[in-house]
Specification:
single chain; alpha+beta; two-stranded antiparallel sheet
Length: 210
């Protein structure tokens, strides 16, 4: 069973109920964060969860690299599922990039970027396992399994989950010209209006994992 969960609210509750201080933040440890997420699932009576688009995660990731520029606004949707969960395409898509920023902490880990054919939308799938099953130039069909959910540290140092982010095509081309390293999964809350146009809700395109 899937259910929507706001991880920032769950983190705030966890800090209060566990009595653990938020500084330094124990949830930056992927094993402790996974335990918190699993506790939230049990309390909500679900097996897995999703959520996070334009969610302020200043509580969840307090003390992380996001604090420096106050970029706590999450720009994608997270599917909180176990490491090893298969990830499949839901639309015909052209794979543009397959890369990894390992061993960067708080990064993308293994990542696949694709353009949906006939729709022009750009989708990023991140925090994947090393054994990605596609390469740049491949054309994926609906239901093609192209990756699995990764685990720390290869997934960027996070607890196991799938991050899916939708990028507006013209903005993506600008980012490619400037360098893909400038692309992030988080932004600043005061830029929410602009960010919501550049990074639209992926749930318009991607449904729950089957």
């Amino acid at each position: 069973r899937f259910g929507y969960v706001n991880l920032n609210m769950e983190a705030r509750r966890w800090f209060l109920e566990s009595g653990q201080a938020s500084n330094p933040n124990p949830l930056l440890d992927p094993d402790i964060c996974l335990s918190m997420v699993q506790e939230a699932h049990a309390r909500h009576g679900i097996d897995f969860s999703y959520g996070g688009w334009l969610e302020d995660r200043s509580e969840l990731w307090r003390g992380s690299y996001l604090d420096e520029n106050k970029t706590h606004l999450h720009l994608g949707v997270d599917f909180n599922v176990p490491a090893g969960t298969s990830v499949c395409a839901e639309h015909e898509a052209n794979v543009l990039y397959v890369d990894s920023d390992f061993p960067a902490e708080g990064g993308w880990g293994n990542r696949v970027i694709m353009r949906l054919l006939g729709q022009s939308e750009i989708l990023i799938y991140a925090h994947l396992d090393d054994a990605v099953l596609c390469k740049a130039g491949d054309v994926l069909s609906p239901q093609d399994i192209f990756a699995k959910v990764g685990k720390s540290p290869q997934n960027g140092g996070w607890f196991p989950h799938l991050h899916v982010q939708c990028v507006e095509p013209s903005y993506f081309e600008k980012i490619v010209a400037e360098g893909l390293e400038k692309l992030d999964g988080y932004g600043a809350a005061h830029e929410v209006d602009e960010l919501s146009l550049r990074f639209k809700d992926p749930m318009r395109i991607v449904s729950l994992l089957r």
